[in-house]
Amino acid sequence: MNKIIFLFLILAIQSSFCQKVSSIEILAPDLKMDSLFLGYPSGARNTHLLHKYNISTTGAKKLDKQGDMQFPLKEKVTIITHSSYPQPAHISSYNRAENTGMASKTFFIEDRNLKLLLKDDKLNFQILSSTPANMEYDKLKVILEKYNTGLKPYESNEPQKIEAKELELQNYIRKNPGSYVALWEMVDDFSRYGYHPVYFDNLKLFHPKVKKTFTFVEFSKLLKLEADNIFPEVTLDNNHLLSRDDFKNYKLTLIDYWSTTCKPCIEDMPKLVELYGQYKEKGINFISVTDEQTPERIKKAHDILKNNKITWDNYFDKNKEFPKKLNASGYPLQILIDSNGNIVKRTYGELQVIQEFIRDYLMQ
């Protein structure tokens, strides 16, 4: 039996404009699951905080932590969202029994009617009735395809490759300064490939109406956090403070930011111990910061550290200042700081990259 879902998106424009009503019509004739999720695409480096449409509806379940709305396939669902400009979204599914999930490719919601056909359980879709932002997004993907092919998501990339893509995007923004799609492409690049100074050059080119948006303002703040290479003063708890003074007696200090719920963090600990043994007599110091606040989690962290024979200092981020001041959005995060308190390298779990950086740094 064919399943047809109508998702009515009412965009309450947060300005002097009147409220506009739009809809997403999703046809899913061949899907086997009972429900799906609608929300903003996931992202690293806290880019999930840049979305500004608050979804609420009847007949569906709001999942605040994920920013998603779960809706049953057999019902009509009216979704209300507050947004004054185009924003990306996706449809996702979750298999509780297998603890696995998948997500569709990105599409845009805006004050237009959109019609999608979900083609299979992998959430591949076809746009049957498009909107201006989605048509622009398709064209921009073609322009940038050759650059995206050469970049590795969530890994270290050559700065020149990131710059090449951003310069192409820069040309596009010059011709289309009012493009929200281009702004979101920059957000996605930052999420996938990390910080590059060219982002600031591109931001200057947008139209004032784009610069006034929540996304633009908050994105600028995230970029400034990672652009600032001076390690900030971080109060971890009432007794421990990390500042530039902690690094002055060492050539480099590696800060490993981890959590007891992070399996890769724990799996990498023997490699960190090996790395520490290799470089501790060469002026390299290690510090761990654990993102745990409760007594139970702190005890578990102590057990993990003891089992892995970690002897360097470990602190607990009880005040939760570390992610705020360093835009630490995930684990494991490794940050290298020189003797002047300057951040010289950031990676997410790429210990081979860290090792190569330390080796090259000591050879200078």
Structure description:
It is a single chain. The protein is α+β, with helices and mostly antiparallel strands. Helix content is 33%, strand content 26%. The chain contains 11 helices and 19 strands. The strands form 4 sheets. A 6-stranded mixed β-sheet has the order 4-7-1-2-11-12, with no helix packed on it. Strand 8 and strand 9 (100-103) form a beta hairpin. Helix 1 (132-149) runs antiparallel to helix 2 and helix 2 packs antiparallel against helix 3.
Q: Uncertain regions: pLDDT < 50 for 5+ in a row? A: 1-19
Strand arrangement in the largest pleated sheet: 4-7-1-2-11-12
Q: Roughly how much helix do the residues carry, as a percent range?
A: 25-40%
Structural category: alpha+beta
Radius of gyration using CA atoms only? 23 Å
Question: Would you tell me the overall average pLDDT?
Answer: 87
- Give the SSE string: EEEEEEEEEEEEHHHHHHEEEHHEHEHEEH
Distance between the termini: 68 Å
Which strand-content bin applies to the residues? 25-35%
Shape call: globular
Largest sheet, strands/sense/barrel? 6 strands, mixed
Question: What's a concise summary of this model?
Answer:
Helix content is 33%, strand content 26%.
Protein topology:
Blueprint lengths: L3 E8 L8 E8 L7 E5 L16 E3 L2 E3 L4 E5 L4 E5 L5 E9 L4 E4 L3 E3 L4 E5 L6 E5 L2 H18 L9 H17 L4 H14 L4 H6 L4 H4 L2 H14 L6 E2 L5 E2 L9 E7 L4 H5 L1 H11 L4 E7 L4 H13 L5 E4 L4 H6 L6 E6 L4 E5 L3 H13 L1
Parallel strand pairs: 1-7, 2-11, 15-16, 16-17
Antiparallel strand pairs: 1-2, 3-6, 3-8, 4-7, 5-6, 8-9, 8-10, 11-12, 13-14, 15-18, 18-19
Helix pairs in contact: 1-2, 2-3
